[in-house]
Specification:
2 domains, NADH Oxidase, single chain, binds flavin mononucleotide, 4-stranded antiparallel β-sheet
Length: 271
């Protein structure tokens, strides 16, 4: 995928589509790409295209398209983060083709989506997305929703990224060659725009932590904020690769924190 930063910068959630069906070329490019998607956890994600009309899929915030894509994954350790990484690969590829998407984890008739995905007993469908071409004017409902969750805003750089320890905010100057990739992490989508990612750069390694949002709990196997972490890892990895940084995925908690305010997820070593 070329010019990843451009696709990340231009992506926004699309909930209002223009009613046109995906053309065959775009659909087949998307389907071919789905087959190639991998994540650093090496847990496969299986994607499926679904018609809303044929399957009774309902998502009240979405209008102007009948087509959805869902993803399913085995419920194993790391599955939520892995899913976030893989599904975001698809979202960004769709963006590169001019196809609009929005991550959906809550505002849909989930049991019907899950049935349509034909989940096995050991599988889950964390999220889905509509697919189509962006409508000219956002629906009133979508506009209200964006305003309510401040969807166009992101936390300041210094509140997300840290230098050596959580006590020292990372300045853009000190970020050096990592600046581009970290800026793309900051632009990532997240559930209810909560932006739970926190990053500590220490000894040429970029450590990703989850800071759970207050009042935003998770039940059972589905964990939207871990999915957010996978999206952040994806933005970091794709941008670093485009910037010719030599990065290696590692899961080795550096034990930088002694409290339970943040949870270690994974790291990228930068050579
Ligand atoms: C894991 C996840 C789940 C989401 N679930 C929903 C959802 O159920 N309904 C919805 O309208 N938007 C959903 N979103 C979209 C977010 O609200 C959106 O990404 C965020 O507000 C930032 O806006 P942007 O994507 O336009 O940058 C979800 C996003 C993520 C990453």
């Amino acid at each position: 995928m070329k010019q990843i930063t451009e696709h990340i910068r231009h992506r926004r959630s699309v909930r209002t589509f223009d009613g046109r069906e995906l053309n065959e070329k775009d659909k087949s490019s998307l389907c071919s790409f789905m087959e190639t998607i991998e994540n650093p956890y090496k847990i496969p994600v299986e994607f499926k295209l679904m018609s809303a009309k044929d399957n009774g899929l309902v998502c009240p915030v979405v209008s102007g398209t009948d087509l959805y894509v869902g993803g399913k994954i085995k419920c194993v350790p790391g599955a939520n983060v892995a899913f976030g990484y893989s599904f975001e690969m698809l979202v960004l590829y769709a963006q590169s083709l001019g196809i609009g998407t929005v991550w959906l984890g809550g505002t849909m008739n989930r049991p019907v989506f899950e049935k349509t995905m034909e989940l096995a007993a050991d599988e889950m469908m964390p999220c889905a997305s509509p697919l189509g071409y962006c409508g000219k004017k956002m629906s009133f409902r979508e506009g209200m929703m964006r305003k309510a969750i401040k969807a166009d805003e992101r936390l300041p750089f210094e509140e997300l990224f840290f230098d050596g320890t959580f006590n020292t905010p990372l300045t853009k100057e000190r970020a050096g060659k990592l600046l581009g990739a970290l800026e793309m992490v900051r632009l990532a989508p997240s559930a209810v725009n909560k932006q739970p990612w926190r990053v500590v750069v220490a000894d040429n390694t970029v450590h990703f932590y989850l800071k759970r949002s207050k009042g935003y709990s998770h039940e059972g196997k589905l964990d939207m904020q871990k999915i957010d972490m996978g999206i952040a890892l994806c933005h970091f990895a794709l941008t670093s690769q485009e910037n010719n940084l030599d990065i290696t995925f590692v899961q080795d908690d550096p034990k930088l924190v002694s409290n339970a305010e943040v949870e270690y997820i994974a790291s990228y070593r930068v050579e």
